[in-house]
Amino acid sequence: MTGFLYRSCEWIMRFAFLNLLWIVFTLLGFIIGGFFPSTIAMFTIIRKWIIGHSDLPVLHTFWTTYKKEWLKSNLLGVLLLAASSIIYLEYTVINNSTHSFLQLSKYPFFLLVILFTFLLLYSIPVYVHYNITILQVFKNSVLIMLINPLNNIVMILGLVLVYYIGQILPALPILFGGSVSAFIIMWTCIQSFKHIERKKDALATIKKEE
């Protein structure tokens, strides 16, 4: 029992420390230039925790990843922010229009918003898990999202739970909001990645047998 409590406290401190690093390094980049490198660094560490590297040096790994991925991650961020801005402008036009055609376009537009939301959620896990180009990040994110609808639901339910707990205990998002949310997203994404790998292995086995 004592060992369980010790390990629990240790992981609580790890998530709190990682969340603090995420906030500090985001601010060091004046938010605009620091958010995406800091987020990539946080997801990188959480990915390593999930796959079994629980004893890695958190600060060193965070700082190394932050520096290494600063330019590429900010390019990813610029593209995501540009797409988000376009979607927001479209929403404003549709919402303020009285034209019947634009009013009818609300329904496919909301579907687009849902798909884009999942693209946002998958893009950073895909970025840190695979060594691929930014264009491939977007392509793979869409494919993985469409192939794994059950994991999408699990991810959203987990994030909604974090949100409501944060409403009940407002101090928790400051201490754990970013790191815990990143863990939920990364964990569900890794399950999707594993599912795809199993499918690939099964297809490869079938081809060999043929």
Work out the helicity level. Answer: over 70%
- Helix and strand run: HHHHHHHHH
Strand content: under 5%
Morphology = globular
Uncertain stretches? none
Task: Please summarize the sheet with the most strands.
Answer: none
Rg from C-alpha positions?
19 Å
First-last Cα distance? 53 Å
- Overall pLDDT: 92
Report what the structure shows.
The protein has 210 residues and is mostly helical. The chain is built from 9 helices and no strands. The chain has helices at 2-28, 35-50, 58-68, 70-96, 100-104, 106-129, 134-147, 149-168, 171-209. Helix 2 (35-50) packs across helix 3 and helix 4 packs antiparallel against helix 6. The protein is globular. The relative contact order is 0.11.
Topology (elements, then pairings):
Blueprint: H1 2-28, H2 35-50, H3 58-68, H4 70-96, H5 100-104, H6 106-129, H7 134-147, H8 149-168, H9 171-209
Helix pairs in contact: 1-2, 1-3, 1-9, 2-3, 2-4, 2-6, 2-9, 4-6, 6-7, 6-9, 8-9
Descriptive keywords:
210 residues; mainly alpha; 9 helices; globular
